[in-house]
Amino acid sequence: MACSDVSSLLRQVEELRAGVVEDASEIARGWKGYVERPDFAPSAENFSHYLALRRRDIRPLQRDLMVHGLSSLGRAEGRVLPTLDALLGVLRVLDGKQAAPFQADPSFFAGEGRLAARTTGLFGPRSPHSPIHLLVTAPSEAADDEGFMLRLTDLGVEALRINCAHDDPDIWAKMIEHIDAAAAKTGRRMKILMDLAGPKIRTGEIRKVKGLKRVHVGQHLAIALPGRLRKADEKLPAVECTLSEAVAAAKKGDRVFIDDGKLETRVIGAEPWGIVVEVHAGPDEDGYKLKPEKGINFPDTDFTVPALTQDDREALGFAAHHADGIEFSFVQREEDVAELQDALAAERPDDWRNLGLVLKIETLRAVANLPSMLVRAAGKQPTAIMIARGDLAVEIGFARLAEIQEELLWLGEAAQIPVVWATQVLESQLRTGIPSRGEMTDAAMAVRAECVMLNKGPFLFQTIAELDRLWSRMDEHIHKKTPQLRRLTSW
After folding, report:
1. Model pLDDT, residue 103
2. Is position 314 within any domain?
3. Would you give the DSSP letter of residue 203?
């Protein structure tokens, strides 16, 4: 190996480390006053180092390091400075600037330990059935079926999700009673996470025109403000939107998606009663049938609406006193986090910081603001992030979803907080009992997260067993981004 090559690499890595430390200090200054929990301070520091590292394109350096058998820095998420320091130690020995072997940082893997402990704290002790924590959504029928919770507990499910968009406190209380009863019989209690609904952007009342039941590509559609449906252009099929702020802020050219992206439209005009959109994509032959209570997404529209609604505040009156953690829907700004934490402090002034908080990442704005939201949340209470892939895919585009979910996994590992992989995991199997090939591959990749959320379905119990078998095999092959390189036995 040419000495000059090593000297050049050494200078580059020294400059990289110095730049990372300098930029990280600037990033951390924006979080001043956020970190109140001492145990999160080293995680916040590593997170700032990772964000500073990822401001740079280090691909050329990576290839030069790989040629010499050195770390490419490709797995530094949970230990940025220790990885850089280890690399510098080797380079200094090779360059003759350090005679004795460098001493490895004894805390090199400390981030992994913090991440594991926080996962257990939020989602409970991991069962022997699977290497990944499982969060299962409770159906309404679970309130009347004590055996449902008992069976989940026997299958090793670590946590239960109660969706506050459905049912009421009486039904939620019955579900929790069944969880406690199952815990008394088995000695294992599932953690309870209650999901606040957030502001609902849904279709409301529908108005058809001349018997027209479906809309097709190229047609125009009226989207009316709440209560203004009858004012909309009588020549157009029309649907009401439940959130006035979104409709009022929509501009010409903005995309509007209906029903999880099944119908893609673009705004072509604004009226006092709402907006007119043109259908750009949808079911080809049959067209799209307008229905109430379907989600609407405005990914290009800049509007501000409180993430914590009045309904959420009422649900929080129950959830803050009965749940182990809160799932925060439609959180988009650090101010949203502060508002929820203030509400929790009002409900439980003495110990609200013990409650877990799951930030559901559903919008492009949430992705952009994630670092500050995450530090503000985790600086005060146990925190996780959920990759809410349903709304997120519509908001950022299906082509970008795979890219963004990878980045969210990296950010979670860098901040040493758990990540929940959610939405449509083995959806076909849950519904029909038979998985698709693509779904199995998707579920296999979920092993890189700390927790996976399953929705309800008639084949729920079979799906849990299938996941246990899948993840037990995958865990031997990969941990986060790192291949485990166990001995292969297929050849």
Report:
1. 76
2. yes
3. E
Q: What is the pLDDT of residues 364-382, one digit of tens each?
A: 999 999 999 999 999 999 9
Cα(203)–Cα(163) distance, integer angstroms? 20
CA distances from 225 to 207, 228, 244, 267, 275 (A): 13, 5, 5, 14, 8
CATH of the domain at 436: 3.20.20.60
**Residue count (the chain):** 491
**Residue for token pair 């069962």:** 127
How many domains does one find in the chain? 3
For the chain, the average pLDDT equals 93
Angle at 183 between CA 178 and CA 189, to 5 degrees: 100
- CB-based contacts of 144, cutoff 8 Å, min separation 6: 174
Rounded to whole angstroms, the Cα distance separating 413 from 463 reads: 27
pLDDT tens string 428-440:
999 999 999 999 9
Domain assignment present for residue 486? The answer is: no
137 and 221 in a single domain? The answer is: no
> How far is 160 from 460, CA to CA, in rounded Å?
13
Please state, in angstroms and rounded to a whole number, the distance separating the CA atoms of residues 274 and 205: 14
214 and 360, same domain (yes or no): no
CB 268 within 8 A of CB 252: yes
pLDDT for res 456? 93
Q: Which alpha helices (H) appear in 294-333, and where do they start and end?
A: 310-322
> Rounded to whole angstroms, how far apart are CA atoms 351 and 272?
48
> Tokens in use for 304?
């501000």
Token pair of 401, please?
């979803």
Given this model, what pLDDT does residue 487 score? Answer: 86
- For residue 22, count other CB atoms closer than 10 A to its CB: 10
- Counting as low any pLDDT under 70, the low residues of the chain are 1-4, 101-102, 211-212
Structural domain of residue 320, as residue ranges?
114-199+306-481
In degrees, rounded to 5, the angle at the alpha carbon of residue 325 between the alpha carbons of residues 142 and 443 is 70
Residue type, 84: L
Bridge pairing between strands 356-361 and 288-289: unpaired
